[in-house]
């Protein structure tokens, strides 16, 4: 028989692991609720154009990484490579831009994303993001709220060694001026650029700054700084963001080379990085985001601004695990039901009892493998059962069962009806 393996770049999140996922997800829900972000769930696949238009046609996502295909109705669709585009599409389709919906309109999402990448640690083909978006305000204070919320979340998970990097991409006027300055600088160096960057040179020179190619790094390091080309209004936006971050005592560094992948970012962009041993001590981005305008309009909505971030859950868990953070809650077993003998009566009573215990709010388990009583007790011990309820034929005939407190190592005989109606009164007897 052929044995199957999971697709390259994917992972099974198995019991023992899934509890950690639940923990970071629950913490995100808790923190985001304090900031009044509500959950949105959009489809995992969308019309290809939703991503192609929003990510930009020189982005890695569109040029190399998209899982796109034609479905049986010949529709060109793609598995979502990131969360923002689908949320923007839904924002427009549900008319949340309307005046009756309070602004900013604030949502969060969590779920799988798909990118055809070369898999390595912290880089998968199916990975997961937790992200947020806030629409309908240009206020620098909202940029800071989004950054503060990401920092708050990571701190509440116990991470302290984080670096917050910010930059401004200015407004359209700032970017046009900077684009020209960058072209003037890069054109004479064109032949030394990586092939990818040479293609980008005239299509989207800013994206060259995002290149991870070693060949490009030196050139990038000496490039002009976008901060020198910001209009007074864009400089003011950045100044207010920095002042507000200072007020909230959020430490940050300004990195004028940071550009981020999306074409529609403007004004504030940010990344939160970790130099955890999980990444060999190298600064690695766990959370990234920024302010964007034009995205809503690009998908057919009104001219409304947004700001948000996306956080990679796999990378987050790598960091948390490297720092030995306690991510799982205890998994107690209140009672294990031991059936003695294989009679139908014992089997029935075992099922009735285990079910009654669950309905009274206890975590309860029984044997389904016809094991001998000794082996069942062994299982109960292994699972850490607090009590065992033993059902034997003789006791059952008298409508009785035995309950043992596994910690106190004491056993008592009690009426079956008390187990099924009021187990609490029994556990109080030990
Ligand atoms: P990178 O520069 O590492 O490729 P990116 O700019 O493509 O990242 P974003 O699109 O900003 O990443 O996604 C936000 C976050 O999602 C990243 O900071 C990272 O934590 C996570 N992420 C992105 N791609 C992957 C992937 N292939 N596997 C796992 N996590 C990922
Ligand atoms: Mg990438």
UniProtKB/TrEMBL annotation:
Residues 24-330 form the Aminoacyl-transfer RNA synthetases class-II family profile domain. It catalyses: tRNA(His) + L-histidine + ATP = L-histidyl-tRNA(His) + AMP + diphosphate + H(+). The keyword Nucleotide-binding applies. It comes from the Bacteria. It holds the Pfam family HGTP_anticodon. It is found in: Cytoplasm. Coiled coil: none annotated. SUPFAM superfamilies: Class II aaRS ABD-related, Class II aaRS and biotin synthetases. One of its GO terms (cellular component) is cytoplasm. L-histidine binds at residues 82-84, 115, 129, 133, 260, 264-265. One of its GO terms (biological process) is histidyl-tRNA aminoacylation. PANTHER family: HISTIDINE--TRNA LIGASE, MITOCHONDRIAL-RELATED, HISTIDYL-TRNA SYNTHETASE. This is Histidine--tRNA ligase. The lineage of its organism: Bacteria, Bacillati, Bacillota, Bacilli, Lactobacillales. The gene is hisS.
């Amino acid at each position: 028989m052929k044995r199957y393996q999971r697709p390259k770049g994917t992972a099974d999140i198995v019991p023992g692991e899934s509890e950690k996922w639940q923990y970071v997800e629950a913490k995100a829900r808790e923190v985001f609720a304090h900031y009044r972000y509500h959950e949105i769930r959009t489809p995992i696949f969308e019309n290809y154009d939703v991503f192609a238009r929003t990510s930009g046609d020189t982005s890695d996502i569109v040029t190399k990484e998209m899982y796109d295909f034609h479905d049986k109705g010949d529709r060109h669709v793609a598995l979502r490579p990131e969360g923002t585009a689908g949320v923007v599409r839904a924002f427009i389709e549900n008319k949340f831009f309307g005046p009756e919906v309070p602004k900013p309109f604030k949502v969060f999402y969590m779920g799988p994303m798909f990118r055809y990448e070369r898999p390595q640690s912290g880089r998968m083909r199916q990975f997961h993001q937790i992200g947020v978006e806030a629409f309908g305000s240009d206020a620098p204070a909202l940029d800071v709220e989004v950054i503060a919320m990401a920092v708050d979340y990571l701190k509440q998970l116990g991470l302290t060694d984080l670096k917050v990097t910010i930059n401004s991409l200015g407004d359209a006027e700032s970017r046009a001026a900077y684009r020209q300055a960058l072209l003037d600088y890069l054109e004479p160096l064109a032949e030394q650029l990586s092939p990818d960057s040479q293609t980008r040179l005239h299509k989207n020179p800013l994206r060259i700054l995002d290149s991870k190619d070693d060949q490009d790094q030196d050139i990038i390091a000496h490039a002009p700084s976008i901060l020198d080309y910001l209009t007074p209004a864009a400089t003011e936006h950045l100044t207010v963001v920095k002042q507000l971050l200072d007020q909230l005592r959020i430490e940050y560094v300004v990195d004028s080379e940071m550009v981020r992948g999306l074409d529609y970012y403007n004004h504030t962009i940010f990344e939160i990085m970790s130099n955890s041993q999980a990444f060999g001590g190298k600064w690695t981005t766990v959370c990234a985001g920024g302010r964007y305008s034009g995205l809503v309009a690009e998908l057919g909505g009104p001219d409304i601004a947004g700001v948000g971030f996306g956080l990679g859950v796999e990378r987050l868990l790598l960091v948390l695990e490297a720092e030995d953070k306690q991510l799982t809650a205890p998994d107690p077993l209140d009672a294990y039901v031991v059936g003695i003998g294989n009679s139908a009566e014992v089997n029935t009573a075992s099922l009735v009892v285990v079910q009654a215990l669950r309905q009274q709010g206890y975590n309860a388990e029984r044997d389904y493998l016809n094991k001998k009583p000794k082996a069942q007790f062994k299982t109960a011990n292994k699972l850490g059962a607090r009590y065992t309820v033993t059902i034997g034929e003789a006791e059952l005939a008298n409508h009785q069962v035995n309950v043992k407190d596994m910690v106190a190592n004491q056993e008592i005989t009690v009426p079956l009806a008390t187990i099924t109606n009021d187990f609490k009164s029994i556990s109080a007897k030990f």
